[in-house]
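Reviewers of the previous submission asked for a worked example of the structure-prediction workflow described in the proposal, so we include one complete record here. The input consisted solely of the amino acid sequence. No template or homolog information was supplied to the procedure at any stage.
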Amino acid sequence: MSKINNNGVDMNNNTLAQLSFSAVKELNDEVAASCSGGGTVAGPDPDVILYKDPDGMGLSEGLSAVKGDGVSNVGLLGTQDTTFNDQTSSIRVIRGTWSFFQDANYGGDNTGLLAPGLYNLGHNNDAITSAFRNA
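From that input alone, the workflow returned the following structure tokens.
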């Protein structure tokens, strides 16, 4: 027995890719992060950019997360040659309010709340291991 929805689509014989509902079309990075339960390496529109050098210079990696979530180990970002664990010198917050921590899983010394802007890490230079989006 076929189940026909309100749009006349036979739900038994179609894959999600074949359906034309906006709800199952492409997810943006923020929604995908919340569905997967964690922060993600961001595409072209990150919430935060980590830089290896002060003043937003050097190698960089973007990340995104929804409010109340984060990245428990920034060493998992990038590749083995471009890990950002204990190597971040500056941070650009693009959206949200974030805290960055010395240890994995949001432990140890932290930066406090950082709103959108560019920050040199000072005493936290090369010590960031996790990031959490507060708002």
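DSSP finds one helix and nine strands in the chain. We consider this example representative of the routine output the project will generate in years two and three.
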